[in-house]
Design brief:
Layout lengths: L3 H7 L6 E10 L9 E6 L2 E8 L5 H12 L11 H22 L7 E2 L1 E7 L2 E7 L3 E6 L2 E4 L6 H7 L5 H4 L12 E2 L8 E6 L5 E5 L8 H10 L3 H14 L6 E10 L2 H7 L11 H17 L17 H7 L3 H15 L3 E5 H8 L9 H11 L8 H38 L3 E6 L2 E12 L2 E13 L5 H8 L2 E3 L2 H14 L5 H9 L34 H6 L4
Antiparallel strand pairs: 1-12, 2-3, 2-13, 3-4, 3-5, 4-9, 5-6, 6-10, 7-8, 7-11, 11-12, 14-15, 14-17, 15-16
Helix pairs in contact: 2-3, 2-12, 9-11, 9-13, 10-14, 11-13
Length: 544
């Protein structure tokens, strides 16, 4: 037994693996806003490159990254890759819900390239054209495969890799998260990992730096922070026509210092005001959620609503507020870096999420269903009166909730409509309907055209001032085009059909007769005299 003890003591203790990391995102030199988002912590790294132009590329990437950050832990019981894939599919459904709520976001999407370090394995999930590179045992290689049109041509042998960068369709994506596919296909893999290997995650904005320069920078720059700074600076020097986001990760063994800084205790402040007390409960919910446990919340008695229900029903933005508070607390509970559009959303509180998501729902439960205090004798005497008040308040809250939901749905419907009207003596496109609901204007100015009102015929001016309804934005643009080309709201072919069936109006008192045949077949018939009935055709033909 004594001989075995030194051997046991000499056996090295295998420590858990974690990530060391650095991240940076830049809008570039051409784009007006940053559509990239990234998060990296000790177990999770995610890069998302949003698309959709001004409509919602930043919303798509931020919503996806913020929806995944709670995965940043290492305890998955051997099911990490499935959890990672399911979470990305959930983020995809979130984007569809956001588009359903706000149709202006239609067409937005995002790429996702993510690493999850759990139980000594590295799990990879990828879709789109963001990339993952690995430097291991001196070999630098691209692990992810671009889901682009040109990559498909390369795989089929129809295009050489050196021709891809100049191909006119190099940015066409074949797979992406968004509102197009309800269940997009992900590339999933689980790989062995060992201390010392490095990973580079990046958006396609880094593609403007030559591949051998990227490889040399990753190999030779030992400090991770310096590495990401250098790669982004190189992109900016190359012109940076796109947003660029770079995340560097190095796999290391966890140290005692890492353990001591990983656990951040959430200490509730002293109860000063009712508002601060509510915030403390939200923070407590977030801390419990970050540890993978639901906070201990007593279930409310059946048929006995709580006072907090009133606040929940009357505040239409409660879910957003809770999401912002819980997200900030979630982020403060662990070491991490958050960059790009997701960082902007977290700082401003404009979290692109759906009220009722898991974290917000847990916080709302804690906030609205409070523990019952011990009842005194006076409370027992007043119980019947309190019960009647609860019933009254619950009925009032239910009515108010129905009215609020009805008004919100009505308003949401108006925002799917468009119409043509006048603004500053010019033809303009409005989003909404031209009515008011008390002090609330139900329309907003969408665009002002260059068509002056005094350049239109009198009847068209009158129609525009009375507003011309449109089915959608495309229909509104069609009407504007008709006004610009023909001076009417109808397309030219409709005017042509109408004018072709019109006849010359008879002179007052005259009897219309059929034209007499020519006495001499060789004598040409007299040319018809143009009349006022042909003028609409001439007007409609303008610009065709």
């Amino acid at each position: 037994m004594a001989d075995e003890t030194p051997a046991d003591e000499a056996k090295p203790v295998q420590r858990p693996l974690i990530m060391r990391y650095a991240a940076r995102s830049d809008v570039g030199r051409i784009r007006a806003k940053n559509d990239d988002s990234a998060y990296v912590g000790r177990h999770l790294a995610v890069v998302a490159d949003g698309m959709g132009g001004h409509a919602g590329g930043d919303v798509a990437s931020a919503a996806t990254v913020l929806d995944m950050l709670h995965l940043d832990h290492g305890d998955y019981d051997g099911d990490a890759v499935t959890v990672l894939a399911d979470e990305i599919q959930t983020a995809n459904s979130l984007l569809s819900e956001l588009v359903h709520i706000n149709p202006k976001l239609a067409g937005m999407g995002t790429t996702v390239t993510s690493l999850l370090l759990a139980e000594g394995k590295l799990h990879i999930a990828h879709i789109g054209d963001s990339r993952a590179y690995r430097l291991r045992d001196g070999v630098f290689e691209q692990v992810s495969v671009d889901h682009t049109f040109v990559q498909r041509l390369i795989d089929e042998g129809r295009l050489r890799p050196d021709e891809a960068e100049t191909h006119p369709h190099k940015n066409v994506l074949m797979r992406v998260l968004g509102d197009v596919d309800a269940s997009p296909e992900l590339d999933l893999d689980t790989m062995d990992v060992k201390p010392g290997e490095r990973w580079l995650l990046c958006s396609d904005g880094l593609n403007y730096v030559a591949g051998h320069v990227v490889e040399r920078t990753v190999r030779e720059t030992k400090d991770l922070r310096e590495c990401v700074e250098t790669l982004v600076d190189l992109t900016l020097e190359a012109g940076a026509p796109d947003n660029v986001t770079v995340v560097m990760v190095e796999i290391v063994e966890e140290t005692p210092d890492d353990v001591s800084t990983a656990a951040v205790d959430v200490v509730p402040p002293a109860p000063v005001t009712e508002t601060e007390t509510a915030d403390t409960k939200v923070e407590t919910a977030a801390a419990a959620d970050s540890e993978g446990e639901a906070p201990p919340v007593p279930e409310p008695a059946a048929g006995k609503p709580d006072a907090g229900d009133q606040a929940t029903s009357t505040d239409p933005h409660l879910g957003e507020h809770l999401s912002a508070e819980v997200l900030r607390q979630e982020l403060s509970s662990r070491p991490h870096e958050l960059v790009g559009a997701a960082a902007t959303a977290a700082e401003s509180g404009s979290i692109p999420t759906i009220a009722g998501r898991t974290v917000a729902r847990r916080a709302a439960t804690v906030l609205t269903h409070k523990a019952d205090a011990p009842a005194s004798e006076e409370d027992e005497i007043l119980e019947p009166a309190k019960l009647r008040r609860w019933v009254t308040w619950s009925i009032a809250a239910s009515v108010l909730l129905v009215l609020t939901v009805g008004l919100w749905l009505g308003y949401a419907w108006t925002q799917t409509r468009y119409y043509i009207g006048e603004f500053d003596s010019r033809v303009a496109i409005y989003n909404g309907v031209s009515q008011r609901l008390g002090p609330i204007q139900l329309s907003t100015l969408e665009a002002v055209t260059q068509i002056r009102m005094d350049s239109l015929p009198q009847f068209s001016q009158q129609r525009v001032r009375q507003t011309v309804p449109a089915r959608d934005l495309y229909d509104a643009q069609r009407i504007v085009k008709n006004l610009e080309g023909t001076g009417t709201i109808a397309p030219a072919d409709e005017c042509l059909n109408a004018s072709s069936t019109a006849t010359t109006p008879p002179t007052a008192g005259a009897t219309p007769t059929a034209p007499a045949p020519s006495p001499d077949a060789s004598t040409p018939a007299a040319a018809p005299t143009p009349t006022a009935s042909t003028s609409p055709t001439a007007v409609c033909g303008v610009g065709q």
